[in-house]
Amino acid sequence: MPARQQLQNRPAERAPRRAPKITALGGGQGLSASLSALRRLTNELTAVVTVADDGGSSGRLRAELGVLPPGDLRKALAALCGDDDWGRTWSEVLQQRFTGTGELGGHAVGNLLIVALWEKLGDPVEALNWVGRLLNVQGRVLPMSAVPLDIEAQVRGHDPARPGEVSAVRGQASVAITPGTVQSIRLLPDGPPAVPEAVQAVLEADWVVLGPGSWFTSVLPHLLVPELAKALTETRARRLLTLNLAPQPGETEGFTPQRHLEVIADHAPDLVVDAILVDERAVTGGAFGIADLAGLEQAAERMGAALVLGSVARSDGTPRHDPELLAAAYDRIFRTHGRIGPWR
What gap in Å lies between CA 265 and CA 6, rounded to an integer? Predict the structure, then answer.
């Protein structure tokens, strides 16, 4: 057989599949859980983090220095540290808090490191890139806006003596624990600018993942930054919304899963979602009680999404996502609901 014919008859070699580009939006522990899962699937991972925290160490640094609140950014960086000794050590160092009652008491080491680089470089994005290189993180962390933001909520029954009255509650820390029922939120200043790199990450992603997390103070704020909201409607990426495992005391007390989706739709009526991930146990007798699955499916359909039930909670009974189970659920959704095929 001629050499040329032999070459033609060989099985074609498969080109190596690239890792999918994933952009995750959120803040706090919810985003950290999502990042811990997603980094098991890809190293093309960008976290876009809310910057409205005004409590604790972040609030003190923000008030004293006028900087972005670093806490949620620190948590995202810690979640992306590697599983080797280097990564685990740096993750613990970032999260370590000073003890005592002095000026350093309560501050997280990572918050001070981030703010020091902000002051030195004068560029919040480049400073976070430097921290990421130091920690050898698996991905990139970006603030959603380059200006500190405030959250103002309209709350019904904030004053227990006037249960029907709607009043304004300002500040992320206050909204998170408010009595009464949160009706809606807005950001101050109104129409804040997005970080251009965050907009680019949404536009260039294969998948954008929103949630889990504090619904009004970590998830919704991204939808109220005009350039980010526009990018979310224009991107060719598929969009995945991950529901929480339980209502959050104060912020979403008494909310059903359907109500969580209605809140998203009320604040971002133009947002179309491809899939919504819900923990099966949470809606079949768990923290939400016995959910109306038919009603939940209809709420998902109104957002253009397929409802995906899975087992993603830790086995210890706490309302926390298990990174391995969440990664497996994300993997199945990416393979079965997206334009991209298997990549590993």
Answer: 59
Q: Give the span between the Cα atoms of 332 and 344, in whole angstroms.
A: 13
Q: Is the dihedral of CA 44, 50, 55, 58 positive or negative?
A: positive
Backbone φ and ψ for 135, nearest 5 degrees, come out as -85, -10
In one letter, which amino acid is 166? V
pLDDT tens digit sequence for 245-270: 999 888 898 898 999 999 999 999 99
Q: How confident is the model over 50-96, as pLDDT tens digits?
A: 999 999 999 999 999 999 999 999 999 999 998 889 989 999 999 99
CB 344 within 8 A of CB 335: no
Q: What is the CA radius of gyration of the chain?
A: 21
Task: Please report which helix (H) or strand (E) contains residue 30, including its range.
Answer: helix 28-38
User: For residue 54, what are its two tokens?
Assistant: 């005004």
For residue 179, give both structure tokens. Answer: 């009595």
Cis peptide before 70 (omega within 30 of 0): no
Longest dimension (CA), the chain: 93
Question: Are the beta carbons of 295 and 258 closer than 8 angstroms?
Answer: yes
And the tokens for 47? 């976290």
Q: Is the dihedral of CA 89, 91, 93, 97 positive or negative?
A: negative
> C-alpha 170: how far from its chain's center?
22
Is residue 221 within 8 Å of 151, Cβ to Cβ?
A: yes
- The whole-angstrom separation of Cα 144 and Cα 181 is 26
pTM of the model: 0.91
